[in-house]
Write a structure and sequence with these properties.
heterodimer; A: about 550 residues; alpha/beta; Rossmann fold; Heat Shock Protein 90; 3 domains; five-stranded antiparallel beta sheet; about 15% strand; B: about 120 residues; Transcription Regulator spoIIAA; six-stranded mixed beta sheet; 4 helices
Chain lengths: ~550, ~120
């Protein structure tokens, strides 16, 4: 590492970030910059940016680069110290001699590098190696760690040449321990002094959720700026995908517009993996349908699935707890968000304390915040496999079917105030949506009535301070789904009294018809409570006779 | 859906009142429909024809107010006839079980004929 960076010409749209990071040591020396926390969704290219930065600095001579990944690091303090120290020495010599193979030969003991170090005149480094070995021989845990972590600083001070320290997945450092997990909290703060050094800017990646806690550590507070790595713009995402395909000797069919790629939200990792999936599935000329097929494979069995599985395993190792996490994530996806923890323990099937621990892990990992479709499809696929016990081919088919029909899906959103006749605005909206779908005008009247009823129920009975009703219409050629949401008093279908009209007349009750009508019109009506909101989900299948030819 | 404000027109044909609700029949408009019918009932009219040809949409509050008229007429042994109902409106009344309390005719003239013949 990090000689396996992708070719610079394939590394798109990150020039400003790369330029800024390259100048970081200069800025830090002038007290104009400090350390950088690289933020961005998983797969957005944070590690790749570090690799590119390493490559650029390696080729030049002004700043020595040091890259360390905590992803695969052994977090037992003594192992970590040795690994960190050794890797630094290797990469430093490698940089000085402009020979990347030195950094790559991890199995070669440091003693073998002594002639090279001497030839470079880096006698202070020989002293440093001997000192470190002394701490190891004395079994001095604390000084091994300090010597390892401060090695880049020592190098910068002795040589006068800045060292940029790149710490990938740095949040894992919070779990450094002495002899058993959790026995030595706060070792991460040992990085504080190194981070403060003017000759050693640090560029850090990691889960924002976990690092939030780290940056509140006193020694690290206020020294780090955030740099957000956003998605690739749509045109560049398509260009990158085509480049990967070309490298894999795959072409696109003439009419392919790659619109499906928008689902990947400009994520370079997903884009690369999808191209590789096309290669694995032996596609030669890619069609839009092939793309969906490759995607189904990718999120259920491909590299993207493997990537996310590895991330899951990092946070929850126990298989039972992992299953519980999948259930919780699926629940969050289906319901839009998480409710109170007490109720979620019923979903997970574990006790409240265990559920709370999983939720904390999910929070720290940022899984809940990751609302991208690819992650959600991975979770759905995993749920189908691990919880429902479906066959991989069934899972792929389900995912494919979702997108093959979704390509004809439209979505409209509307917010109305809780005021007189506001429901007519909704009725008008559904009328136009129906016209767009060529629906029969008489059929539309029923839909309008169902919607009007749900809206007036919300307006009349919710007691909402927000005084708004949120509506979402999702249409497909054969189905319309309407979601109506409002804050305020809970409402449940169980609370409705079903009385025949004679009884109503006898009792002088003339109201309470609304949901009877809604049920008679729609194919399914579901009422949910999500936090302080009531959500009504109604669906209606559209039959041929309800559509104008 | 026509974007017309609700209005109620009426006329007296013999001993029957014909009511023309127009637009969206909801709580506000339903009240004016009840008031209009109430005026005729107050004058001793027991036969009412509601011509729904111009009724665009209805909601459950509007329906409940229609039930009020049915009840008022029931108390004086009166008759309510409904005419020119769309399939949608008829289905809705049927779903709620209201159709048994009204006499339904395709057109207004049929209802008037029926009332004139004294079958009510």
């Amino acid at each position: 590492m990090p000689s396996n960076a992708i070719p610079a010409e394939d590394f798109l749209n990150r020039e400003p970030e790369l330029h800024y990071l390259k100048s970081l040591s200069e800025l830090k020396e002038k007290a104009l910059g400090g350390n950088v926390f690289l933020e961005g969704a998983r797969g957005m290219g944070k590690t790749e940016l570090l690799k590119q930065l390493h490559r650029v600095l390696f080729r030049e001579d002004h700043v020595a680069p040091f890259y360390y990944s905590f992803k695969t690091a052994n977090l037992k303090g003594t192992y970590f110290a040795k690994d960190y120290f050794t890797r630094f020495v290797r990469q430093y010599i490698s940089f000085q001699k402009k020979d990347s193979s030195i950094a790559d030969h991890a199995a070669e003991p440091l003693e073998r590098l002594m002639p090279a170090i001497s030839s470079l005149g880096l006698y202070w480094l020989i002293d440093g190696i001997e000192d470190f070995q002394g701490h190891v021989n004395n079994n001095d845990f604390y000084w091994q760690l300090v010597a390892a972590i401060s090695a880049p600083v020592v190098a910068a001070q002795k040589s006068g040449k800045p060292v940029i320290v790149m710490l990938d997945d740095f949040d894992a450092a919070e779990h450094l321990y002495e002899s058993s997990l959790g026995d030595a909290h706060g070792l991460i703060s040992l990085f504080g002094e190194s981070m403060q050094n003017r000759l050693c800017p640090h560029v850090i990646t990691g889960s924002a959720g976990a690092l939030e806690a780290i940056f509140t550590d006193h020694s690290l507070l206020g020294m780090t700026e955030r740099m957000r790595l956003g998605p690739l713009p749509e045109d560049l995402a398509a260009a990158l995908f085509r480049t990967h395909l070309a490298n894999l000797k795959i072409t696109c069919a003439p009419d392919v517009r790659l619109t499906f790629l928008t689902l990947l939200r400009g994520n370079p990792l997903y884009i690369r993996n999808l191209a590789k999936a096309a290669s694995k599935m032996q596609k030669k000329e890619l069609t839009e349908k092939d793309l969906v097929e490759c995607y189904g494979f990718e999120v259920s069995e491909g590299e993207t699935a493997f990537y996310w599985s590895s991330v899951f395993n990092r946070y929850v190792q126990n298989p039972t707890k992992r299953k519980a996490m999948v259930k919780l994530l699926m629940h969050a996806i289906e319901n839009g968000e998480m409710e109170d923890r007490g109720r979620l323990s019923r979903v997970s099937g574990l006790c409240e304390a265990e559920t709370a621990a999983i939720l904390d892990a999910m929070e720290a990992s940022g899984f809940i915040r990751d609302k991208n479709a690819v992650f959600q499809d991975f979770v759905s696929a995993l749920y189908m496999k691990e919880i429902e016990g479906r066959k991989p081919s069934d899972v792929r088919e389900k995912i494919e079917a979702k997108y093959l029909s979704e390509s004809e899906e439209s979505c409209f959103e509307l917010v109305i105030p809780m005021s007189s006749n506001a429901e007519l605005v909704v009725a008008k909206a559904v009328e136009q949506i129906g016209i767009n779908m060529n629906l029969d005008s008489e059929f539309l009247k029923y839909l309008q009535l169902a919607l009007i009823e749900v809206c007036i129920n919300a307006i009349e009975h919710s007691g909402s301070y927000e005084k708004q009703v949120f509506l979402k219409f999702i249409t497909r050629p054969n189905k319309i789904k309407i979601i109506i949401e409002n804050s305020g008093r809970p409402f449940s279908l169980d609370s409705l009294m079903e009385l025949p009209v004679e009884e109503k007349l006898r009792m002088g009750m003339k109201r309470g018809w609304g949901f009877k009508l809604v049920h008679s019109i729609m194919d399914s009506v579901k009422v949910e409570r999500v936090n302080d909101r009531t959500r009504v989900i109604m669906t209606k299948e559209i039959k041929d006779k309800e559509v104008h030819p | 859906m026509k974007s017309v404000p609700f209005s109620v027109a009426s006329r007296l044909v013999g001993d029957a009142a014909v009511i023309y609700p127009k637009g969206y029949l909801n709580n506000l408009s339903g009240e004016s429909l009840v008031t209009e019918c109430g005026i005729y009932i107050g004058k001793g009219i027991t036969k009412i024809v509601v011509n729904f040809s111009e009724t665009d949409l209805i909601n459950s509050i509007g329906i409940s107010l229609l039930l009020q008229i049915i009840e008022d007429l029931k108390n004086i042994q009166g008759t309510i006839c409904c005419t020119n109902m769309s399939k949608f409106l008829r289905d809705t009344f049927e779903t709620l079980g209201l159709i048994q309390y009204m006499v339904v005719f395709p057109v207004e003239s049929d209802a008037l004929q029926y009332l004139k013949a004294g079958k009510a």
